[in-house]
Amino acid sequence: MVETITPVVHGGSRSRWGVSVAVHAIGAAASAAVAGALLAGAGGLLGAPWGVAGAVLVGTSAAAYLAREFGAPVPVPQLRRQVPDWWRTFFPPHVAAFLYGVGLGPGFLTYLSHGTVVVVSVAAFASGRPLVGAALLAPFGLARGLGPVLAFGVRSPSDGAALVERLERSASRARWRIVNALALAAVAVTMVVEIRTIDGPSELGELAAAALALTFTAAAVTKLVRGAAWRRTLAAYRLPPGASRVVAFGVPIVEMVIVGLVVVGLGSTAGVVSLVALAPFCVAIVIGRVREGPRLGCGCFGGSATRDYRVLLARNFALAGVAFVAWTAGEDASLVRSLGEPGGADLLPAALVVAGLALAAWVGAAAFVGRRSAR
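The chain above was modelled as a monomer; its predicted structure follows.
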């Protein structure tokens, strides 16, 4: 992205390039703030903050990604895609720079070399406060948005390409790993100290219910988006035709029912329903092992890859353990736990969320029009 926002692209005009850098940084910071506010809002909807359990969640994620800096195979969630290249030819330079900033700001939509922002996102989610979430993620987006400042001395396309190559090499250098490791270690130590100062219940049941909601949301959405892969996986289990159709539509519905139970404050009930729902899956895995052999398709998250049946059973048992904690340690609210109308400190993040949704709708409409005109 740095090579597309250089003085050369702006005809050598430092002033026009400076405006593009500024709007690029503003777009990145704003989209990151919106992402943080949305994460925190989702956490609040699921009962955050969770006291000691929330601090443990943040500290554990920091420890996991600290281990990754030393070679542990911990995945970093990311789409690994570039922002659309056609934006810079379809939109005016300043608008394109702003949109590129919006796409880069949250981080997860493109490429991430380290897991530090994942930990910050977990902290935003666990805070349950949109203003806190926006404040946590905005600096990350601003830092990414200021990247084109490094192109100040670029005077030719070859200079831009050389700069990109240097930046790609520097991302894997030891000093950046050390910086990220120190930051992650500081978060982990801070959470350990914080846990000792938190009074009151740990709210472990509420956190377990939130984990169920996130897991089943991802499972249901991917089954609906990748319906063909999900149906192919079911076909491998050789269910009767009528039963296969019922399962194909029924499983995502059950998963979303569990999510809905958590959202309305019935976390304990969601744990019971999850346990009941997981039981036939475990039976199906055992039957599939007898019929098809040790490697089976899962399809839980819309994928078509096969795995050892023991891995599938272990994953289901782990999720059942989370459901058991939600059932036994959680509680059912009297009715709906409402977030209420935003007020005071929450007005700014609420406005950011509304602005972000409006911007997303505008970008989507512009992309649709741009693709139609390009045909």
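Residues 324 and 369 are 49 Å apart (CA to CA).
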